[in-house]
Amino acid sequence: MGGAPDPDFRAVFRTTPGLYLLLTTQFEIIEATDTWLRHTGTQRAEVLGRPLLDVLAESPDERAASGPRELRESLERVARLGRPDAMPVHRYDIRRPDGTFDERYWTLLNSPLRNEAGRITGIVHRVRDVTELVRLHREGDERDELARDQQLLIERLRAANEELAQRDRSLSESGRLYTIALEAGRLGSWELSLPDRRMVSSAQHKAYYGRGPEDPFTHDELRAAVHPDDRATRQAALDRALLGGADYDIEYRVIWPDGSTHWVQVRGQVIRRRADGTPEHMAGVTLDASERKRAEEILEARVATRTRELADANARLTAAVAERDKAERALVEARRLEAIGRLTGGVAHDFNNLLAAVIGNLELLSAALGEAPPRRYAEAALSAAWRGGRLTQQLLAFARQQRLESALVEVNDLIAGMDTLLQHTLGGLVQVEMALEPTLWPASTDATQLELVLLNLAINARDAMPEGGTLRIATRNVEQAGATLPEELDPGEYVLISVTDTGTGMSPEVAERAFEPFFTTKEVGKGSGLGLAQAYGVARQSGGTVRLRSSLGGGTVVELFLPRAPAATQAEPNWTPPSDHVASRGSAVLVLNHEPVLRHIAGELLAEAGYQVQEASTGHEALAVLRERHFAAAVVDAAVPGMTGTEFARLARQLQPELQVLFITGGADMLEPNRLGPRERVLSKPYGRAELLSALRRLASAWAE
Ligand SMILES: Nc1ncnc2c1ncn2[C@@H]1O[C@H](COP(=O)(O)OP(=O)(O)OP(=O)(O)O)[C@@H](O)[C@H]1O
Ligand SMILES: [Mg+2]
Predict the structure, then answer these.
(1) Average pLDDT in the 63-76 region?
(2) Within this chain, do residues 616 and 555 fall inside the same structural domain, yes or no?
(3) Both 416 and 518 in a single domain?
(4) Does residue 395 fall inside a structural domain?
(5) Does 64 score more than 60 pLDDT?
(6) Where is average pLDDT lowest: 43-57, 139-153, 308-322, 435-449?
């Protein structure tokens, strides 16, 4: 190129427009363009020879922290790989002369410089300051976003804003937002200046008191609008807020100018106090509570109804359960007595047969002994055997297996007839009261048994009143009224006899067992425990029952239910006492019994009394005898095996229509007393000579009449 001087490349480089640096492979600055120095606010003298990363001081701004690191990594890549390396926009803040930093954004290109041998000798570092671009871009984004938000806000709040702006231009920005919130929540707002009670309130607040937005509304008017019943509570809540510093929080009713009543909920606080604590300013919100109150009231009413329904259902259930329990207990009790009854009945039957034999033999023995002294022993034994006989009768009564001569009984007359007996039995300490229903129905039962039952009840009462007291016997008619009748009774009409005493009463345990035969609390020899058992048996066998009500110290009531006698029932004709003239003596009597001992005794008793006796041990045998010979009477064991007593009687009548039949029974047997024919009678075991003869005589005389 001749003598042309070499261009001063260094000077050329320095003046190159653009931001360039020439770096060593150690990233020290070899040269910088003027533009670079200007942009970075540095002087050439202070940067040449120094590592680039030292020259560019790190900004304290965290977001700029990655700049230097990324720059170093880019340079290292160039030095290592020998390829140009571009860096996208990144932030690298520049320190100003005053020490603060200027937020700057750059794009960079680092390119390797090689010598002829191809070895990397340096790096050309080119920078473009894109701060302006970035800023413009970002501002654009922000503007867009802001614009969107504002649009939304404006749309949502425009109406409110406009109204607000109109109403109160002096409201600050925050005040306006506050108002918007209140309106959105349909909250009325109010402020109360306390010294002068001046109140400022929003349109919504006024609306809750039934006032228009423009109506004046003073604190006094507000107080007057509060429902009279709620004024005291409101005042108390207000006082607590003013004096105690509590939040003012209350619900009360307000009466609108049109007279309607509404619920409001009010919340407030004292927002300013004087140094000495005196409240100066109060503010708060009001909201409508009518809807909620109504819902609450409906809910409460529903809950109350539901609770009531549940309680009712529960009560019905409890009653039903109690009713069922009662019925169950009554049933169990009835079954228990039934079972005891069957056992008792069986034993009593056997005893009756034994006693009949014992009594018969003793009577024969005592007759045979004549006036000889040992006759005393026989008679003592006889009287004991008779006592046994009475006991077995009671047992049979309880077992409902005794022969009941049910007939129409005028109970009041029967009770009246017992008066003297009762007075005598009860002694002077017990006062007797009668309350007899004048129009009492006749009852259907066995009069003799009923007398025994009443006598025993009276004795029980006396025993329970050792210091004296009152015995009250009352009668009345009981109509079919399911609930009042004991469970075991069929619906129907009953005659009720109640025997009440003011005695010791019974504990539940005693009352529960009182009807059991042989259950007694009395000392040995005083009670056999058969009285109530007999009462129960007689009543049940008559078609009624007995009910006991008693408590310790509270006296006792025994109620005897007897069925009303059907209209057709005839009163039992009074038997004339057996006359002494023995019409049938000397006549022939047939004795039918399969038990040899009993048969012989009956035969001997009759023979001794002058009858002509023939014995038969089976029904067929007896019928055969009847075909041969005429008999005035037959004494027939009702329970002959093979043929019942009644069957025998029927067949016998075909042979001898005039035959009189005396049935001997150990109990109710198969015989139905009211189905007895005119020439038939019944004698219960055990019987003695006198009973047998008198029965035969009655049979004869009844027939004779
Ligand atoms: N009026 C009453 N007051 C209190 N307890 C009574 C009354 N009646 C019965 N009792 C109780 O019931 C028990 C059974 O009575 P029940 O009449 O069956 O037998 P008893 O009176 O003991 O003996 P019995 O009647 O055979 O002479 C009595 O022992 C007594 O404890
Ligand atoms: Mg008794």
Answers:
(1) 78
(2) no
(3) yes
(4) no
(5) no
(6) 139-153
CB atoms within 5 A of ion ligand 2 belong to 456, 460, 531
Convert 553-613 into a string of H (helix), E (strand) and C (coil): CCCEEEEEEEEECCCCCCCCCCCCCCCCCCCCCCCEEEEECCCHHHHHHHHHHHHHCCCEE
Token digits for 39? 């942009």
Listed residues 548, 563, 578: the one ending a domain? 563
Q: What CATH number is attached to the domain comprising 595?
A: 3.40.50.2300
Q: Is 533 in the pocket of ligand 1 (CB under 6 A)?
A: yes
Q: Which ligand 1 atom is the nearest neighbour of the CA of 516?
A: 18
Q: Output the pLDDT for position 177.
A: 62
Tell me the HSE value of 249 on the side-chain side, using a 13 A CA sphere: 3
- Over 80: is that where the pLDDT of 405 sits? no
Cα–Cα distance, 281 to 295 (Å, whole number) = 35
Q: pLDDT tier at 500 (50, 70, 90 boundaries)?
A: very high
Same domain, 417 and 515: yes
Q: How far is the CA of 449 from the centre of ligand 2 (A)?
A: 14
Which residue's CA is minimally distant from atom 12 of ligand 1? 514
Nearest-CA residue for atom 6 of ligand 1:
460
pLDDT-based confidence at residue 172 (cuts at 50, 70, 90): low
Q: Is residue 305 part of a domain?
A: yes
C-alpha torsion angle, residues 341, 346, 347, 353 (rounded to 10) = 140
Residue 434 alpha carbon to ligand 1 centre in Å: 22
The average confidence (pLDDT) of the chain is 83
**Ligand 1, closest atom to CA 528?**
26
The rounded Å distance from CA 528 to ligand 2 centre is: 8
Closest ligand 1 atom number to CA of residue 504? 4
Are 602 and 539 in the same domain? no
**Token pair of 280 as six digits:** 């100066």
Domain of 475, CATH number, reads 3.30.565.10
Cβ of residue 516 lying under 6 Å from some atom of ligand 1: no
Q: How many CB atoms lie within 10 A of CB 238?
A: 17
Domain extent, residue 55, equals 9-129
690 and 597 in a single domain? The answer is yes
In CATH, what number is assigned to the domain containing residue 93?
3.30.450.20
Q: How far apart (Å, rounded) are the C-alpha atoms in residues 639 and 17?
A: 152
Task: Report which protein residue has its CA nearest ligand 1's atom 29.
Answer: 520
Together in a domain, 212 and 239:
yes
- Do residue 415 and residue 547 come from a single domain? yes
Give the DSSP per-residue string, 479-546.
---TTTS-TTSPSS-EEEEEEEE-S----HHHHHHTTSTT---SPTTT--S-HHHHHHHHHHHHT-EE
Q: How confident is the model at residue 574 (pLDDT cuts 50, 70, 90)?
A: very low
Q: Which residue has the higher pLDDT, 548 or 688?
A: 548
Which residue's CA is minimally distant from atom 8 of ligand 1? 460
Comparison of pLDDT for 703 and 223, the residue scoring more: 223
Number of the ligand 1 atom closest to the C-alpha atom of 558: 1
SS3 for 331?
helix
Closest ligand relative to 529 C-alpha: 1
Question: In this structure, is residue 469 part of a structural domain?
Answer: yes
Single out the residue in 288, 318, 336 at which a domain terminates. Answer: 288
Question: For residue 648, which amino acid is it?
Answer: F
| 419 and 502 share one domain | yes
Verify whether ligand 1 is closer than 6 Å to residue 503 (CB atom).
yes
CA atoms within 13 A on the CB side of 68: 15
User: Is 92 among the domain residues?
Assistant: yes
SS3 324: helix
Ligand 1, atom 10, lies closest to the CA of 460
Query: Does the beta carbon of 527 lie inside 6 Å of ligand 1?
Result: yes
pLDDT band at 675 (very low <50, low <70, confident <90, very high): low
Give the closest residue (by CA) to ligand 1 atom 17. Answer: 531
- How many distinct structural domains can be found in the chain? 5
